[in-house]
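Batch job 17 of 40 flagged for manual review because the log was empty.
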Amino acid sequence: MGKITGFMEFERLEEGYKPVAERLKHYKEFVIGLDNAQSKLQAARCMDCGTPFCNSGCPVNNIIPDFNDLVYRGDWRHAITMLHQTNNFPEFTGRVCPAPCEAACTLNVNGDAVGIKSIEHAIIDRAWAEGWVQPQPATATTGKKVAVVGSGPAGLAAAQQLVRAGHAVTVFEKNSRIGGLLRYGIPDFKMEKTHIDRRIAQMQAEGVVFRTGVLVGAMPAEGPGSKVTNDAAQTISAEQLKTEFDAVLLTGGSEVSRDLPVPGRDLDGVHFAMEFLPQQNKVVAGDKLKGQIMATGKHVVVIGGGDTGSDCVGTSNRHGAASVTQFELMPMPPEHEDKPLTWPYWPTKLRTSSSHEEGCQREFAIATKAFVAGTGKDKGRVVALKTVHVQWQGGKMVELPGTEKEVKADLVLLAMGFTAPVASVLDAFGVERDARGNAKAHTEAQGGYRTNVDKVFAAGDMRRGQSLVVWAIREGRQAARAVDEALMGSSTLPR
C-alpha cells in the first residue's frame, strides 16, 4: 500500500487555512485542501501495516489503504469508486468528520498519522470537478414504497441506498430545505450547503422524492423541544404514513438541547445554540428573518466546550462580537494524549478548532450558578453570569470556595449537547423509547433497526443519540439494508 518506505520519507502534511482577517469577513469555507501532488505524497505514507486499524476506526469502515494506494498511483477515478462503496457522502465527512480513522492509524502509535481525511476530501472534490459523480438509478423497480422521516445524513444515506435497490422513496423534512442538522446546525464556513444541493440533485435523478415543510406528528408546545427549528406548513399523521407506505424509517436528529435550569434562565439574551446557528444559516441561504439573534458588539459567553460551542464561537466572531468566552464544565484535557494508553481509540486531549484561533477565551472546570439581570434599560436582560470553578472528586462535581466571580455577558449561548430526538414524533408512531429517550432498536444483522411498531424502523441520532455525521451515514446505510431485507426477504445492499 502506498510507497513501501513512504512513511519514513514523507512528513504528514496538514490542510491549511486562509488568514483569520480574511475569513472573518464571510461565511464561505476557508480550508486550503491538498493538491494532487500533495495528496499523492500523503497517500504514499500509508504503510503496508498488515492490520489496518483505520478501517475499524472509521464508523463506515472506509477501505482506506486501498483508496490511499489508488491516489498514490494516480488512479483517482477508481479511488472515488472505492470511497463510494462505503460512504455515500465523502464531501460531508471530508469536511466535518473528526477523523477517528486517523486516531486508529498504525503510524499514530509513535508518530503522525496519515492525513486520511485530507485525502478523502481531495478525492471527492476532484470527482465532482471531473464529473465522475453521476446518478445511479435502479435497473428495476420493486413496487414497494418507503417513507424516510428526516433528511439529515442518516435519512439521505438510507434514501439513496433504498432508491438504488429499486424502491419508491419519499423523504419528509419539517424544514424548508433538505439536509437536517447538516443544513441548519453546521455553519457554512465549515461546510457550504452547495455540497448538499448537489447530492439532492443526484438523488432526485435517481428517483428520490423530497417533501419539505412537512411535519410528521406534532411538535411539543413547551420545553426545550419547542425550540427546535420547525418551518412546517403542513402536517401528516403517523397513521397516514403507515397506511400509504410499505415501510417507514425514522431518521430525525437528536434535536432537543440540554438546558441549564439556574436562576435567570428566562432572561432575554439567553438562548440555545440551536436557536442561534440555524438563523445564521438561513440568512446565508438568502432568507429574510425578523429578530435574528445577533452577537454584534456583544460580550458573548458560550457554555459548552464541544463542536457546537465552537461553531457558536466562529459565528459570533463573524457577527463582530466585542468578546467571546467559552466555558467547559470538565477540566482542561492534556495537550497530548498518552498514545500507549489510548491507541487505536479516540483519545481525550485538548482540541483547538479554527474558530478558537479566530478569537476566544476558554475557561475549563467552571460552572454557571445564575444569570444576572440588568437594571434600567437592561431590565429583564442578561448582563452577567455568576460562576464558580469546580473540581471532580470521586466522580462528583465539587465547587471550590473562593472562586466565585461574575462574568460580563450580553449574549449567552447554551451548547451543552442534546438529550434526545423530539419525543412527539416517536410518540406519534407509538415507538418504544430507551432510557435516554431514543427510539429503542438494536443493530444486529437480523432484525436490526426495527422498532416495536410493525413496518417502522429507526436509525441515526433518532436511535443512537447525538453522534457524528459519519455514524449517521453508517446507520442510514445499515438501516436501508434492514428495510430492503424486510420488504424483499433478502438484500444485496452492503451492510
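Reviewer: the log was empty due to a logging misconfiguration, but the result itself is present. The chain has three domains: 6-130, 145-256+419-488, 259-416. Unflagging and moving on to job 18.
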